[in-house]
Amino acid sequence: MKADVTRWLADAGLGNLPIEALVDGFARRLNELGVPLARMFVGTSTLHPLVRVRSLIWERDQGLNTRFEFRQSDIDAPMLRQSPFASMLQRSVAERRNIFTSPAPRDELPVFAELRAAGMTEWYGWVFPFGPLVPKAGDPLDAERRGELWLVCSLATDAPAGFTDSQMALVRDLLPVFALAAKATTLRTIGEGLLGAYLGRDPASRVLAGTVERGQVQGVEAVLLFTDLRGFTALADTMPGQELITLLDDCFDGMVRPVVAHGGEILKFLGDGLLAIFRVEGRSRAEVCGKALDAACETLAAMAALEARRAGRSLPTPALDVALHVGHVHYGNVGADDRLDFTVIGPAVNEASRIERLCDSLGRNLLMSQAFARAADTSRHRLVSLGYHRLRGVREDTELFGLVS
């Protein structure tokens, strides 16, 4: 009964049922109610800095068998521009019907030609804005503002007569409830993506789990990776703003990808550098140190490649300095009542920063602490002692290490 499906949708929305399970469950229930649904498409915009649109397709014989993810740079992709929803979003059209029993028009959209060839007889599409939809001329799929978030949905049937009036009445009653349930789980997914992009995966999961009280920290042992672009401040004084941002983004790409690939977590961007950690918990110190060392070496290699590319265009590139240290840190919420930061604090963090500052004077782009060298016993053959040096604020001189030439 319709009331049972409505109740199921309400429970699914309240329980943040994953969008895949929500679409599959709703499509099957429509068929059980007598709606001859052969194919269902659902797409949502996002606020993720990399992903613009996510979509999936359900088919009666195969279930959920197709997923798409379009990046922000894919806005001009033919599949997006030629979608029937592009014009609907641009013109603020909430509903569209397409019948395939009549001859195909010469300018039929590719998706309609595909459905016609697959034996579909009718297609219905709906747009559900999550708030006021304010389309921009020439950019119908722009989802940069929260007020422009939307869900689009289409149902297709292969029934000879298409959808009957009574079937469409039932669908029109249930689809807004489906959209509301989808909004609940979609907004949570969007929130998780945003928090992950700006805080990092682990801090994001902790915040969503309720670790939000100021001073709520835990002690962890970790390898700290600290980076800084040497001479970036002087370079910034000579470059136009947009060129500077593009350069900084390219540099951060080279720093972040290796760290994440080797299991590290980016905790903070520090102007022209970053702080990352590789937590030791559950693994040996030597293994974690090895991964951090690999990440540091790959980061320097990425910067060297960037420098070579830019040199070919006579563009300057700053050098990158990296420090590796291992120690016990406090990890969690620090800040004011209404503005918190998820970070690490402790003497080990300060020491990593001060080790990095010696890279220039020692003529090295990578320095490692004595504690790191001791912990990295399986990587010790890759390291060479650079002697003892004084770190500001540290009472005793400490031995520093570099890479074997």
Assembly state: single chain
Structural class: alpha+beta
Query: What's the total count of β strands?
Result: 14
- Rounded to an integer in angstroms, the radius of gyration calculated over CA atoms is 27 Å
- SSE string, helix = H, strand = E? HHEEEHHEHEEHHEHHEEHEEHHEHEE
Q: Number of domains in the coordinates?
A: 2
Instruction: Please tell me the overall pLDDT.
Output: 86
- The CATH topology annotation of the largest domain reads as Beta-Lactamase
Report the CATH architecture of the largest domain: 2-Layer Sandwich
What shape does the CA trace take? Answer: elongated
Describe this protein's structure.
The protein has 405 residues and is of the alpha+beta class. The chain has 2 domains: 2-199, GAF domain (Beta-Lactamase, 2-Layer Sandwich), CATH 3.30.450.40; 211-403, Nucleotide cyclase, GGDEF domain (Alpha-Beta Plaits, 2-Layer Sandwich), CATH 3.30.70.1230. 40% of the residues lie in helices and 28% in strands. It has helices spanning 2-14, 19-32, 78-81, 84-91, 110-117, 165-199, 201-208, 232-236, 241-261, 285-311, 347-356, 359-362, 370-375, and strands spanning 39-45, 51-59, 63-71, 95-99, 122-129, 150-157, 217-230, 265-269, 273-279, 319-336, 339-345, 366-369, 383-389, 398-403. The strands form 2 sheets. Strands 7, 8, 9, 10, 11, 12, 13 and 14 form an 8-stranded mixed β-sheet that branches. α9 runs antiparallel to α10 (285-311). It is elongated. The N and C termini lie far apart (74 Å).
